[in-house]
Design brief:
The chain is α/β, with parallel strands linked by helices and 201 residues long. The chain is built from six helices and eight strands. The chain has a six-stranded mixed β-sheet, with helices on both faces. A two-stranded antiparallel ribbon has the order 5-8. The relative contact order is 0.22.
Length: 201
C-alpha cells in the first residue's frame, strides 16, 4: 500500500502580501523555510513507518526548496521535480492582491480571468502527474511500494482533494495552509483521502 502525502510549500513574500502567485516563480522567505522544517518534523513519524519514502515536488522554486528542506531534515534522497505539479496558472491575475482581484473580476468562485487555467484542467494535469510520480517511484523501488511526499501548491492540492471527495473536502471557507500536509491512500481506482489539515478561515 502506498500513502501519498501532499504538502503545500512554505510561505513566500507574495503569500504574505496576499498576492496571487500561480505559475510565477516566487522563492520561499525565511518564514517559509521554518515552515518547511516544521512540516518535516510533522512527517517524521510517517517516514519511520514506511519501508521507503520518495520526495517529489513541483519544479517551481518555492515548492522545490520546501521539498529539499524536508528531504534533508528526514535523511531522504534529493527530491525530483515534475512540471505537472505546478500551481494553477492565473493568467492576468498573477501578481495582484486578493483585494485587487475582487475589484477587477469579482467573487473568486465565479471570476473569469483572461489567460487563467480552468479548475478542470488543473485536476486532469495534477492527477496525471501524481500517477506518473507514483508509477516511477514504484519502478525505481521495486519490489517495495514506497510512500511519497509530494510538495505542491494550494490551488492544486485543493483541486485534487475536491475531486477525490466529490467536493466535500477541504470545504468552502477552509484554507490549505503553507506547510500543511494532506494524506491519501493510492488505490487502483484512484486516491482515497485519509487526513487533511485544512483549517477554517
Amino acid at each position: 500500500m502506498t500513502i501519498l502525502t501532499l504538502v503545500r510549500h512554505g510561505e513566500t513574500d507574495w503569500n504574505r502580501a496576499r498576492r496571487i502567485q500561480g505559475s510565477t516563480d516566487i522563492p520561499l522567505n525565511d518564514t517559509g523555510r521554518i515552515q518547511a522544517r516544521a512540516a518535516a518534523h510533522d512527517l517524521a513519524e510517517r517516514v519511520t513507518r514506511a519501508s521507503a519514502t520518495v520526495v517529489v515536488s513541483s519544479d517551481l522554486s518555492r515548492a522545490h526548496e520546501t521539498a529539499r528542506i524536508i528531504a534533508a531534515e528526514l535523511g531522504l534522497p534529493e527530491p525530483t521535480t515534475h512540471i505537472g505539479l505546478r500551481e494553477r496558472s492565473y493568467g492576468e491575475a498573477e501578481g495582484v492582491t486578493d483585494v485587487e482581484f475582487a475589484e477587477r473580476w469579482g467573487p473568486w468562485d465565479t471570476a473569469v480571468v483572461p489567460g487563467a487555467e480552468s479548475r478542470d484542467a488543473v485536476v486532469v494535469r495534477a492527477l496525471a502527474a501524481l500517477q506518473e510520480v507514483v508509477e516511477r517511484a514504484r519502478r525505481e523501488n521495486d519490489p517495495h511500494a514506497p510512500d511519497l511526499i509530494v510538495v505542491a501548491h494550494g490551488a492544486l492540492i485543493r483541486a485534487v482533494m475536491e475531486h477525490v471527495t466529490d467536493g466535500v473536502h477541504p470545504g468552502r471557507g477552509h484554507k490549505i495552509l503553507n506547510g500543511s500536509a494532506h494524506s491519501f491512500r493510492v488505490e487502483p481506482e484512484g486516491l482515497i483521502l485519509l487526513e487533511t489539515s485544512a483549517v477554517p478561515v
